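Quick one: sequence plus pyridoxal-5'-phosphate SMILES, need structure tokens.
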Amino acid sequence: MNAMIKKCGLRAIINTDVRKKFREKQPPTFLHPAKVEPVKDFHQSLPGYKPTPLVSLANLSRELGVGNIYVKDESDRFGLNAFKVLGSSYAMGKFIGQRLGLADGELTFDYLCSGEVRKRLGGITFATATDGNHGRGVAWTAQQLGQEAVVYLPKGVARRRVEAIEETGAKAVVTDVNYDDTVRLVVKAAEDKGWQLIQDTAYEGYERIPRWIMQGYTTMAAEIEEQLEDNALPRPSHVFLQAGVGSFASTLLGYFVNKDKEDYPFTVIMEPEKAACIFASAQAGEGEPQRVTGDLATIMAGLSCGEPSPIAWPILRSFADGYVVCPDYVAARGIRILANPLGDDGKVVAGESGSVGIGLLSLLSLEKECAELKGKLGLNEDANILIINTEGATDPVNYRRILWDGRYPLP
Ligand SMILES: Cc1ncc(COP(=O)(O)O)c(C=O)c1O
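Reply:
Sure thing.
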């Protein structure tokens, strides 16, 4: 049953039915850990691959009255400031592999970038729509492959995010509409111009590439598993995952459900106020995903999406335990906390879409008004919470405003 709670400016839904109905649901087999090896092998063949750090914040855990806080820090993935390239690079590799009839074992990046492959493929223009990070991943991968990229971005995108895409040689097109309408524009343009679409959300008739993108993200889940094991850290009891279209969150959730079965971590999905389409879908219940429209304005640009991916939503609906809508001040607080670590905890540079989990955990733990919600989520001294910092300071101007000028304070 869905219980709705409103506290500390947060809106939350807890779905107690998902655990009871676990056996009625089918975990997404394409995200099974048994399928991760070829994905990891592919990423390991990319220039500059190394696992991103899993930072354990022991002092902050004590301060917040929880067992452990682990932050998987994606701020320096391949030097690109965000996790997203894991998905785009893998999907573009698979696309080329399939077109040339290559087996998984032949999908090494060196080979894909070779003159031989370029000759066999001819010239391709890859196209996508993005709030910034996914498009940068597509543009970077196209550059490495010696191919072209065209990247559409919604109105209001930060200048730095556009520049980072242009620096790869890709063409950036800033539209005058929101993210979801920008996706529709690039889909149409790609059809008209013969571009190859690499989109991180699905729609009817377009599922193969978004699935590969999601499989690309499983490398991150596998790294987390290895890092917990190597450091003999207790397994997470909770995972906080932020969502735009939901591809990222459903991938990690799908991976953990396949791995741990009924014992998978208690999973909370976080979204910004004006782009809470997953929350709206959860509120509507078991049916089709719901969309939200308008300008979707938020400092969490990567989460500024109004329409859930139809591949992601069924996974979230079947297995996510909770959904929380977070105003922008939650993300701003997370940025400040991660930039100012307690004692010898490591510093983490988090962008607005990356910091929301720590911001939320801190509010739930420290604000008296949130105590009831904290209790319902089971956040006590035995809780080990996994949070993903999905991006670094991808909008450095806003990052500084938040840190130096205290922008977006708690109300
Ligand atoms: C930094 C960051 N975090 C999280 C997300 C959310 O991913 P998804 O749209 O798959 O839900 C995005 C999406 O662009 C992002 O850029």
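Residues 107-206 form a domain with the Rossmann fold fold (CATH 3.40.50.1100). Residues 240 and 268 are 5 Å apart (CA to CA).
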